[in-house]
Sequence to fold (167 residues):
Amino acid sequence: MNVEAEPTALEWQSYLGEGVVRLPRKRVTADLVIRDEAGRILLVDPHYKLGWDLPGGMVEVNEAPHLAAARELREELGLDRTPGQLLVVDWIPPHEPWDDILAFVFDGGTLTGDQAADIRLVDGEVTAYRFCEPEEARRRLLPLVSARLDAALEAQRSGAISYLYRE
Fold:
């Protein structure tokens, strides 16, 4: 870019675009804490990873995390819900084979009995779902996800968003 003259809008946009290409990108996930009327937590069993998980998944390019959580819920379980309050932001450091990840967890509210009965396995990514008491959920989840669930439950109680990270 010519620094002696005022850059044109096109020159400035091109200059900024070159910098954007070199900036790091992050992987982002978005999950939901959903309960049934008895207060049990909805878990899913994805076929492509170990352990059970909270409903949700990967955020697509240029997609807002709360919209990704709603999309994943629709695609995997056939549920149409609007995510509520953000409960947790969790930074996960690089771990094989992944770069670092930002995980968002939103309040998914409570399903009525009729809504819970409408759950269906839609796209084949999830092989099962189950409503679990918190203690059972902790046993089924990997430690990383269990810690995220505990932070989300505390955020629901306190009203304060949790930020988690590991070194």
Summary: The chain has five helices and seven strands. The helical segments are 9-22, 65-77, 113-117, 134-140, 143-158. The chain has a mean pLDDT of 93.
